[in-house]
Amino acid sequence: MAEYHFDVQSVVVCGDIHGDFEALEALIRERDMHDTLIIVAGDCGFGFEPFEYYQRVWLDSYRTLHRRNCWLVMIRGNHDDPAWFDSHRKKFNRFYTVPDYSVLKVKGHTILVVGGAVSIDRADRQEAMRQYPDQPCWWENETVRFDKEALDGLPAGTSIDAVVTHSAPSFCLPKWKNGLKRNALRDPWLIRDCAYERQQLDILSEYLFAFDHPVKQWFYGHFHTSVAQEINGIRYTGLDELELAPMELP
Fold first, then answer.
1. Which residues are bridge partners to 38 per DSSP?
2. Fewer beta carbons within 10 angstroms: which end of the chain, N or C?
3. Is 13 helix (H, G, I), strand (E, B) or coil?
4. What is the CB-side half-sphere exposure of residue 201 using CA atoms within 13 A?
């Protein structure tokens, strides 16, 4: 399990950006963020362009991040190539793509991040890749999975108090993603697979509860919907595209 430490004063979680890194950088400047960790909750947009493209994106954003002592951490969405989030991938300075089940440490705060979901338009994307195999737009291992081995490997004494995922447990709103039933007309296993995706995060929630992790906040993207609800003492925040939400620090 990868662990990252950040010397900042605040944490902000951002909804899906779908490759619009310029818009995210503009938000950092408009909100006058300093000493901040920004976590993108998946669908960052990695894998649709060659490596050199993202290298230029990093070079363009590095000056803003460095001057403001900000860090950008991105987790895997269903519209991201999972290879970009491999633990062995070279990391850009202040611009990280982190593996699933990474732990972020900020001011005594311990944040678990878990990516992945099912693309409800996967049938269209699969067809596009059959026609244009050199233009990737879908990855077979896109969904989220509960990884007990990774969680069991947490260092002794680790207490997770916040979670950021791309999708959300089944008891969180919304219950389904817009367009799911329409896309299921040509993808007969889609509803089943989306239900399984949510169940994997149910199991994650049950695990954290069973082992007395003091989780108080849970953020997610994927559904392109703003929602806030409190369930069993945990505040669940769903984020629209490029929506920012502050994380409370102890």
1. 12, 72
2. C
3. strand
4. 28
Q: Could you report the per-residue pLDDT of 183-222, keeping only the tens digit for each?
A: 999 999 999 999 999 999 999 999 999 999 999 999 999 9
Pairing label, strands 162-165, 36-40: unpaired
Q: Write down all domains in the chain, each with its CATH number in brackets.
A: 3-247 (3.60.21.10)
H or E segment to which residue 36 belongs: strand 36-40
- In what helix (H) or strand (E) does residue 196 lie, and over which residues does it extend? helix 190-210
Indicate the pairing of strand 36-40 with strand 234-238: unpaired
Peptide bond into 174 cis (omega under 30): yes
The pTM of the full predicted model, rounded to 2 decimals, is: 0.96
Q: How many CA atoms lie within 13 A of 186 on its CB side?
A: 11
Can you tell me whether residue 48 is helix, strand or coil? coil
pLDDT at residue 90 above 70? no
Three-state DSSP state, 131: helix
Structure tokens given for 195: 């239900």
Q: Which amino acid is at 167?
A: S
Q: Which of 56, 45, 39 is nearest to 20 (CA)?
A: 45
- Predicted local distance difference test score (pLDDT) of residue 118: 98
Q: For the chain, count helices (H), then strands (E).
A: 6, 12
* Mean local confidence (pLDDT), 231-250: 95
How large is the average pLDDT for residues 214-236? 97
Of 167 and 89, the structure prediction assigns the larger pLDDT to 167
